[in-house]
Design a protein that fits this description.
alpha/beta, Rossmann fold, binds beta-D-galactopyranose, 14 strands, 2 domains, 39% helix
Length: 365
């Protein structure tokens, strides 16, 4: 195994050459009671830096939760920056490093299937985190993704008011190679299809906000600025891209726009009236279940005790899963959700420019 330098108190440092090539960093305790000389090592593989949640919440929370359950665990962390080949290389490097388990958010589920198989053949269990991965995974932690879509769809209908029947919307779906995107879309369309007219619908490779921005401009030119009653955006990045295109094209008033991920920018847009809603998928419980599965898998323990559900993988195998419940957030429940859970303080959300708007909606410290 490649020697790993440890780091203390979360300060990530690059490790051995092979790791550096693949962009891995290691953090955690040194040596200990794992099943090899280096102690127990857990690899975290994130898909991109496009969506803020992965590096801002999931990584630090997973590290903390893993350390709480396993004092001498080392966490090796890699971000594929949206590139399938990079993520494959990162899995390979972790196999070479001899990690004891991996937590994987696949950039592209199908393309990573072979890498998951390779890890399995090397005896390394893979926990699919947030997105179902293809191949022989050992466990899966996520939110009910169809429910996310239904929450978004219902909130949009509510915001459309008397345009909920027969109004026209533009639909910005996520990355088609992310299995969650398919479920978000399915859930949303199950609520929206019979009610509103879908003027234009787009998929958004790699969840890129700038692609949504371009598509929204295209939809405005094709449909006409004043014919768009609402926008279904699958996440906050796509919402941001769509809203800036609506503003650039002087669409006033802005139609209601949905989102997902409870990004700080989205909450500010919600308070300011530019975005109608987001979906909050509490990061803590997801990281806690992911860490519990990863530590148990690394120790060769059974995951059934942690699992609350089962899901069928692409191989037709049932695997232990934890399926969590997403929460719809509009201006009226920011305090009772994100502020209450300590994700953001009112001071963080309420910038000086938003102070008056925050006062109006009761977001005062
Ligand atoms: C999904 C995930 C969402 C969102 C999106 C963009 O798989 O469930 O929370 O972050 O990816 O990366």
């Amino acid at each position: 195994m490649m020697p790993l330098k440890r780091c203390t108190r979360g300060a990530a440092i690059a490790v051995a050459a092979v790791s550096m090539a693949a962009g891995l960093t290691a953090c955690g305790g040194g040596g200990g009671s794992g099943d090899d000389q280096e102690g127990t090592e857990i690899g975290l593989l994130l898909p991109d830096s496009t969506t803020a949640r992965w590096e801002t919440y999931d990584v630090p929370l997973l590290k903390k939760e893993i350390k709480e359950r396993c004092g001498d665990c080392t966490v090796v962390h890699a971000n594929a920056k949206g590139d399938v080949a990079t993520q494959r290389q990162q899995v390979d490097s972790m196999i070479t490093e001899g990690v004891d388990a991996m937590v994987l958010v696949a950039v592209d589920a199908r393309s990573l299937g072979a890498a998951v198989r390779k890890a399995d053949q090397a005896g390394i269990p893979v926990i699919a985190y947030d997105r179902l991965a293809e191949g022989p995974i050992s466990g899966f932690v996520t939110f009910d993704a169809e429910e996310v879509g239904r929450l978004q769809g219902r909130a949009l209908l509510e915001a459309l008011g008397d345009r909920a029947d027969g109004g026209q919307i533009v639909v910005m779906n996520g990355d088609p190679s992310d299995p969650n995107s398919i479920s978000f879309k399915k859930g949303a369309l199950s609520v929206l299809s019979d009610r509103v007219k879908i003027g234009k619908m787009y998929d958004t490779p790699l969840w890129r906000a700038e692609v949504a921005n371009k598509n929204m401009s295209g939809a405005i030119s094709a449909l006409g600025a004043d014919t768009i009653d609402g926008v279904y955006a699958a996440n906050d990045g796509l919402a941001a891209g769509s809203i800036s295109a609506l503003k650039a094209n002087k669409v006033t008033p802005l139609p209601p726009v949905t989102g997902q991920d409870a990004e700080l920018g989205a909450l500010r847009r919600i308070v300011g009236g530019d975005q109608h809603m987001t979906v909050y998928k509490p990061f803590g419980p997801e990281a806690s279940a992911g860490a519990a599965m990863a530590v148990a898998a690394a120790r060769g323990e059974n995951l059934d005790e942690i699992a609350t559900d089962e899901v069928r993988t692409s191989d037709g195998k049932e695997v232990p899963a934890v399926l969590l419940t997403p929460v719809s957030v509009t201006v009226g429940n920011i305090r009772d959700t994100l502020v209450k859970d300590g994700v953001y303080t009112i001071q963080q959300i309420c910038t000086p420019q938003l102070r008056a708007a925050c006062d109006r909606v009761g977001l005062t410290a």
